[in-house]
Each structure stands twice: as structure tokens, then as C-alpha cells.
Design goal:
The chain is an all-alpha fold and about 300 residues long. It contains 13 helices and no strands. It has helices at about 10-25, 30-35, 40-65, 75-100, 105-110, 115-125, 135-155, 160-185, 190-215, 225-250, 255, 260-275, 280-300. The radius of gyration is 19 Å and the shape is globular. It has one domain. The longest helix is centred in the C-terminal third of the chain and has 29 residues, at about 225-250. Helices cover about 75% and strands about 0% of the residues.
């Protein structure tokens, strides 16, 4: 991505932005749950991507910010395609499909695994990103958290196979997000907003035709589902990208990882308080193990 100056000490504004990102992303799983009351899972994924792509494209027009050149920046577009697939199309579609079966809080807890899987992939794909003992310990703690979260029945598929498949799919989504992160970090220098817009436009071009072919045009969805879909497109998919760019430019990418501790907590709170989802004891135990894994893995950076 663009070469950034050495990050300065985080300001009060940066802390407010980080807190906002935690709430915005934490509420996205609640919003998917509501959107599914009026739309199919592919339509939910296509809708949020389409709204976000249109929003950022309009922003680029207003800012007179050109997209990467199709001829001169082919490598950038290849990376944008990778980001579109692994960060948008696959995870959004799978999460929406899985949330027809699993709780929103469950999905939010699994998202805390993303930075742990990223550490493993970065060890192979990125020079200088080596697996140290604290990082290995953090990954192992996170994997134990997955076992506790899903349970032996889910891992061995001895219970409800569709429910277990949905749970395992959520874990698979975190691998997709991690892979998307690696693809993005390997991208040549480019304006982050233009790059995000390009990837969302590619994602929309892929998912919208599929959603229309499989699920058709929605007919009279209820207002709550419409509002939820609008939120998904505008806030966690479009607006959060702009906050993310500002945080990385001003305080650095390491500071941004503070959101990894907040998202699962907010998703559990929203799911429990607003959706009246039950909170099994293993959810809290798994959350503790995964967050402990994140904390241990960060010791290598201090």
C-alpha cells in the first residue's frame, strides 16, 4: 500500500476512532441477522458490497481520486481482485449463510481468530514476519478456544451436521480474511481509498449477478431488513474503511489491532441484549482463550 510516515503517538481522536470501529464491526453480525429476515444470504452479501462500492466510488468522484490504471497498474488490480474474493465476496456470503443457523455472537467470537491466522500466513508469505515463541503460543491458545467454542460434537460432525458445517464455515471465514490481509499487504504502493474502491467494484461485479441468478430480485422486504442492509453497506463495509485508513496513517497498523479485542465483545453484547441470544458458558470460555491468545501473540511486538 502507500508508504506511510513513522506513526505518531495515538491521539484522543485515534482512540475514539478505534472505539467506533469496534462498535461498528461488532454490530455487523447483529445487522446480518436482521437483514436475513427479508433477504437471502447471497442478496445480503451482494447488497452490502454494492452499497459500499457505490458509496466509495462516489467519494472518489467527489475527491477527484482516480482508480488505478488498468494498463499501468495491473499488479494492483490483481491484488484488488484477491482482496475482493478473500475479504469481501467469500466471507460476506459465507457469514450470511452461516447466520441462518448459528448465533451472531458465535460469529463475532470467531473473528478474533483473524490476526492469529494472519501470523501463521505472514511467516510464510511476508519477509521479516517470523513466528516467535509468543506468537506460536498465541496461535495455539486461539486454536484451543476454537475447540471449546465449537465443541467435540461440532468437530466430529456427530451432532446436527448442518449446524456443525455452519460453525466450521465461520472459522474458515477467518482464514479467508487472513489471506485477504496478506494479499493486501503485498500490494504495490497505491492510494488506500482508491484500492478499496477498486476491490469493492470487483467484488460487486462478481457477487451481484450470482445473487440475482440464484435468489432473484427481493420482493417487499420489511423495513428493518432494509435498514440493516443499508447499515451493512454504509458503516462496516464503506465508512469503516475510511476510518481505518486514517488510523493507519496517523497511528500505525499495530495500533489498529486494538479492534481485535473489541469486536467479539461487542458482538456478544449485541447478540445477548438485543437478540436475546443464549450465552452458553463455553462461549465465554472460548472468548477468554482467544483473547488471551491475542494478548500473548502481541508480546512479540513489545
Amino acid at each position: 500500500m502507500t508508504n506511510l510516515a513513522t506513526p505518531s503517538r495515538p491521539t484522543l481522536t485515534n482512540w475514539i476512532e478505534i472505539a467506533a470501529l469496534g462498535v461498528i464491526w461488532g454490530a455487523s453480525f447483529l445487522s446480518v441477522h436482521v437483514a436475513l429476515t427479508g433477504f437471502g444470504p447471497l442478496t445480503v452479501a451482494a447488497g452490502r458490497i454494492g452499497i459500499a462500492a457505490a458509496t466509495l466510488a462516489l467519494l472518489c468522484v467527489l475527491l477527484r481520486l482516480p482508480l488505478p490504471s488498468l494498463h499501468a497498474d495491473r499488479r494492483v488490480w490483481r491484488h484488488a481482485l484477491g482482496m475482493a474474493v478473500f475479504t469481501n465476496v467469500l466471507p460476506f456470503a459465507v457469514i450470511a449463510w452461516a447466520q441462518q443457523t448459528v448465533q451472531s455472537s458465535f460469529v463475532g467470537i470467531t473473528m478474533a481468530l483473524v490476526p492469529l491466522f494472519t501470523l501463521v500466513m505472514a511467516h510464510v508469505a511476508l519477509p521479516g514476519e517470523r513466528l516467535t515463541l509468543p506468537r506460536i503460543a498465541g496461535v495455539l491458545l486461539g486454536l484451543v478456544g476454537v475447540v471449546v467454542l465449537i465443541g467435540l460434537d461440532g468437530l466430529t460432525l456427530t451432532g446436527d451436521p448442518w449446524h456443525a458445517l455452519a460453525q466450521l464455515s465461520c472459522v474458515g471465514v477467518t482464514v479467508s480474511y487472513a489471506l485477504g490481509s496478506i494479499v493486501t499487504r503485498r500490494c504495490p504502493a497505491v492510494d488506500p481509498v482508491a484500492f478499496s474502491t477498486a476491490s469493492l467494484l470487483l467484488a460487486a461485479a462478481m457477487i451481484v449477478p450470482v445473487a440475482l441468478a440464484v435468489e432473484g430480485v427481493p420482493h417487499a422486504p420489511p423495513a428493518p431488513a432494509l435498514w440493516a442492509l443499508a447499515y451493512l453497506g454504509l458503516m462496516p463495509t464503506a465508512f469503516a474503511t475510511l476510518i481505518l485508513v486514517h488510523v493507519v496513517r496517523s497511528a500505525g497498523p499495530t495500533f489498529l489491532t486494538q479492534t481485535n479485542y473489541q469486536v467479539p465483545v461487542w458482538s456478544v453484547l449485541f447478540g445477548t441484549l438485543l437478540l436475546s441470544e443464549p450465552l452458553p458458558p463455553q462461549f465465554l470460555a472460548a472468548l477468554g482463550l482467544i483473547l488471551a491468545g491475542l494478548a500473548v501473540s502481541r508480546m512479540a511486538r513489545r
